[in-house]
Amino acid sequence: MIINPYIFGGYDADAQAFFTAAGITSVTEKNAYNTFILGLKSNSLYTQQLLLPFLGGTASTHKFNAVNPVDSDAAFRATFGGGWTHSSTGALPNGTNAYADTHMVPSVDMSDSAQHLSIYLRTNTAGALSSDLASYTGAGSNIVQLITKFTDGNIYADMYNNSTNRISLANADTRGFYCLSRESTTSFKLYRNGVQIGTVNTSAVAGRSSCTNNFFFSARSAATFFSNREVAFVSAARSALSDSQNLTYYNLVQALETALGRQI
Amino acid sequence: MGKVIEITEAQALELKGKEYTKDMYFNPVQDEKGRWVISEEEVVQYKKSTYSFIKSAPLREHEAKKEEQIKIVKG
């Protein structure tokens, strides 16, 4: 006989706190997320500052940072501006004026030597002036950024300095799970679906302290680089991920998305 | 590119940051020609009457800003 271990309320305490705060009621979503959290913990990957799993299908549920599910900017809840469509598959920005502000600030909340940022995108789009992750001050080379397909067809990934620490390569399909990983002050890597696709090895330490604008997804700011790629997962953590940990992280996220029926 | 309605600068200032539906906020932006616009999604999902002027404006295709942003991304 197969017994559902969650029937009697046996969810992980951190998962349950998120369900309660966000008002998540779907048993399918609860079981999927609980399995995901247990997987993170058993692999020593539960280190996130920010974790947006996009459960519940509305802005009011998608906004919660699942690792600190307090309805406040200080807890890094997402604020959705402009035109969004929220559903069970994630949050779809309109590419016209939609942005999401996480209220994280790289100069304060991120690390020079151990940091990763991730996003799961469900839409394949043509190249455009659109950013998927960003903290941009508007001047100079200091920037945190992921553009999965610019007008020239390339990915642009920057973490703290786009002059010395840029990863750029052609991208045929914008869908998938992207992870920007800073493993040291001189090592920055970009992964897609758990596989490393780019790396640079020069120092960018001086740049982070100048990244004083909030960390956004689906736009560079409230005013520029609006994306139309649907988002199903976002995370940030002050921890480095090795190649094998990146693959494990991808496998856990992909299992979550598969359990939710929205995997790419 | 999506559809938008054009609004005045004063209306843009009035709408900026106001909630148009639960936990989503108006974000007026300027288009390629400097006109203030909001998106079709904001107009459709707004169900209250305070900003009823957005319901009477015609929808048209958005013309996004381009040139200055290209220079920015290349660093």
Question: What's the short story on this structure?
Answer:
The complex is a heterodimer of chains A (264) and B (75). Chain A is α+β, with helices and mostly antiparallel strands and 264 residues long.
Structure description:
The complex is a heterodimer of chains A (264) and B (75). Chain A is α+β, with helices and mostly antiparallel strands. Chain A has one domain: Jelly Rolls, CATH 2.60.120.200. Chain A contains 6 helices and 15 strands. Chain A has helices spanning 13-22, 27-42, 59-62, 106-109, 205-208, 243-259; strands at 48-52, 79-81, 84-87, 90-93, 99-101, 115-121, 133-136, 143-147, 154-159, 166-170, 176-184, 187-192, 195-200, 216-217, 231-237. A 7-stranded antiparallel beta sheet of chain A has the order 2-5-14-7-8-9-10, with no helix packed on it. The mean pLDDT of chain A is 93. Chain B is α+β, with helices and mostly antiparallel strands. Chain B has one domain (3-73). Chain B contains 4 helices and 6 strands. In chain B, the strands form 2 sheets. Chain B has a 4-stranded antiparallel beta sheet. A two-stranded antiparallel sheet of chain B has the order 2-3. The two termini of chain B are 25 Å apart. In chain B, 28% of the residues are buried. The model of chain B has no long low-confidence stretch (mean pLDDT 90). The interface between A and B is medium-sized, with 35 and 28 residues. Strand 2 (79-81) of chain A pairs parallel with strand 3 of chain B, so a sheet runs across the interface.
Topology:
The complex is a heterodimer of chains A (264) and B (75).
Chain A: H1 13-22, H2 27-42, E1 48-52, H3 59-62, E2 79-81, E3 84-87, E4 90-93, E5 99-101, H4 106-109, E6 115-121, E7 133-136, E8 143-147, E9 154-159, E10 166-170, E11 176-184, E12 187-192, E13 195-200, H5 205-208, E14 216-217, E15 231-237, H6 243-259
Antiparallel strand pairs in A: 1-15, 2-5, 3-4, 5-14, 6-11, 6-15, 7-8, 7-14, 8-9, 9-10, 11-12, 12-13
Chain B: E1 3-7, H1 9-15, E2 19-21, E3 24-25, E4 29-30, E5 36-39, H2 40-45, H3 53-56, E6 60-61, H4 67-73
Antiparallel strand pairs in B: 1-5, 1-6, 2-3, 4-5
